[in-house]
Amino acid sequence: MIRYLTAGESHGEALVGVVEGVPAGVSLHPADIDKHLARRWLGYGRGGRSKFEKDKIHVYSGVRFSRTMGSPIALRLDNAAYQKDRSGWPEVMAVEGAGEGVEKVTLPRPGHADLVGTQKYGFDDIRPVIERSSARETAMRVACCSIARQFLKQLGIEIGSHVVRLGEVGYARAADWRERVEALLVDGAEALYRAADESELRMLDDDLTARGIEHIKAAKEAGDSLGGVYEVVATGVPPGLGSYVQWDRRLDGLLGQAILSIQAQKAVEVGDGVEAAARPGSLVHDPIVREDGRYRRQSNNAGGVEGGMSNGMPIVVRGYMKPIPTLIKPLGTVDLATGEAQPTRYERSDVTSVPAASTVAEATVALVLANAFLEKYGGDSFKEIRERYEAER
Ligand SMILES: Cc1cc2nc3c(=O)[nH]c(=O)nc-3n(C[C@H](O)[C@H](O)[C@H](O)COP(=O)(O)O)c2cc1C
């Protein structure tokens, strides 16, 4: 099984990650990781550090001559904010000293980890909470999970995503985008992400993109922020990944956790989960047919998962992101130093990060699918795994 740990503060020197359990012999180039790190910066309305931060992965172990060795893969990503001349972050985040002259942060922002994190860990300064709860951590997550993604790709399993709603602007129902997505999926789910990446909002529809940009401009003008919904799709997934026999082996449960583990993601849907709850069963369940000796479904409302297992159809998962909590328009809070009511203070922040979150979700879904695949077809080397997989197919 592939597991990983990340470490690092948002404005510390660097983020680091260790990925363990990747089979030997998977083709891996740093550029495969950098490509997805760059996609994490996509999206109109992103401000702040996205303007100057360009992520470049450093690989320290576990890879030799562009192939994994089965040993742990150690990764580093520098935080450009820390490196910038006169940034002040080396002093604010100093490993040693007592922080003389460093201003404490005492106004917790509603919607962030600030208040409870400060109480839980016994700080008198919110800074340590902000630093680790920030979504900057997702950069290293994308890097770690991109390795699982490379593994899947070499087995013909591809992952893509697109944004289906930004605040009030979105498709009315899944049927409105399904045909467009299915046409792209004929070439594999990477065709979906490439098409979505063409849009500033990662939306497949030009009219929705234009309206979404106006919506973001208006939210910015009003000092507000926006959430939204995206869809992640995986193609080439064989039937039988995951299991119904135990709660913690159900693929849908694991996919849900993967999405909800990302900062600010507050709901998740497998297939047409939300719409299906309002429809009769005859319009929900996907009829089974047999074509050319294979079982298929006439539709994919289930999103490729039945009974906690992949059923051979594309896996479809949607994530729902709350609006970003850092607002220009102040919210009410309380100064932790004085106990007095105060308005929140604005720090440069995105208006929305839904397009970026959709790329992070692709990565976290990749890890779940890679592990479900390894559970069924696992081995120590890529060759061994591929032979086992092809023999069964
Ligand atoms: C890719 C991404 C980028 C984000 N960018 C910001 C940001 O610029 N400003 C902000 O206040 N929150 C941002 N967030 C959201 C916060 O990380 C999140 O709201 C916060 O961690 C609290 O959410 P939680 O309750 O789910 O942890 C971002 C989230 C993601 C996934």
Can you describe what's shown?
It is a single chain. By secondary structure, the protein is of the alpha+beta class. The chain has one domain: 4-Layer Sandwich (Chorismate synthase, AroC fold). Helices cover 34% and strands 19% of the residues. The protein has 13 helices and 17 strands. The strands form six sheets. It has a five-stranded antiparallel sheet. A hairpin with a 2-residue loop joins strand 7 and strand 8. Helix 1 packs across helix 6. The longest helix is centred in the C-terminal third of the chain and has 24 residues. The two termini are 22 Å apart. The mean pLDDT is 95. It binds flavin mononucleotide. The site of flavin mononucleotide has 20 residues, from helix 12.
* Succession of helices and strands: EEHEEEEHHHHHEEHHHEHEHEEEEEEEHH
Can you identify the CATH class? Alpha Beta
| Share of residues in helices | 25-40%
Q: Write down the domain tally.
A: 1
| CATH structural architecture | 4-Layer Sandwich
CATH superfamily grouping: Chorismate synthase AroC
Radius of gyration: 22 Å
| Separate helix tally | 13
Question: What's the short version?
Answer:
By secondary structure, this protein is an alpha+beta fold.
Present the secondary structure layout.
Elements: E1 3-7, E2 14-20, H1 30-39, E3 57-59, E4 63-64, E5 67-68, E6 73-78, H2 80-83, H3 89-92, H4 114-121, H5 127-133, H6 137-153, E7 158-166, E8 169-170, H7 175-185, H8 189-197, H9 206-221, E9 228-235, H10 251-260, E10 265-270, H11 273-276, E11 288-291, E12 294-297, E13 305-306, E14 309-310, E15 315-321, E16 332-334, E17 341-343, H12 354-377, H13 382-392
Antiparallel strand pairs: 1-2, 2-6, 3-6, 4-5, 7-8, 7-9, 9-15, 10-15, 11-12, 13-14, 16-17
Helix pairs in contact: 1-6, 6-12, 10-12
